[in-house]
Amino acid sequence: MNKAEKTRQFIVKMTAPVFNEKGYTGTSLNDMTNATGLTKGSIYGNFANKDEVALACFDFNLKKVGTIIRQEMDKKDTCRDKLLVYVHVYQNFLKHPFPAGGCPILNTAIEADDTHPLLKQKAADAVIAWKGLIAGLIEKGIAAGEFSEDVNSEQVALTMIATIEGCIMIAKLTGKINYRNSIMQSVEKMINEL
Predict the structure, then answer these.
(1) What CATH fold (topology level) applies to the domain 59-192?
(2) What is the per-residue pLDDT across 173-187, written as a single tens digit (0 to 9) for each?
(3) Where are the domains of the chain?
(4) What is the pTM of this model?
(5) Which of 7, 60, 86, 127 is the most buried (most CB within 10 A)?
(6) Which one, of 39, 34, 42, 41, lies nearest residue 15 by Cα?
């Protein structure tokens, strides 16, 4: 890896938490220079503009969440237990190295839905990929006889994602951990009834 690539990675690593907490609009160039200790010229010498930094930061934050989920799923044998990882991780997210600011999909979707088409597309692609992962696990579980054959894998996947993202939003908005736990119990029940 050359020096320019290392500098780009450093900028992304240091500004990713800022973008995830403050959003695209709320993150200023000053925030980026403060987070990195670099000058404006150093940042924009490595990235064409703020959009490019923000898109790279979204990818970085999303990868961080994906890595947590994959590592926990790798410890499980059954499809049901792999799906239940979502419950355990999101109920105990403080025990995992989640990105500062919480879920990058939720944060980006809320801010970018009407204001930033490229970030909106990144968030939409992330949801579609997440849906595919969950639906794939359900299909594998159906084939293995773990789940009922009449389960609509896409419907369950979308419902799980909507419930998890809604759970994060409600808990973050209200500051009530018991709300998060109650909602995640519903996700757990849904998985156990497949």
Answers:
(1) Tetracycline Repressor; domain 2 (1.10.357)
(2) 898 988 988 999 999
(3) 59-192
(4) 0.91
(5) 86
(6) 34
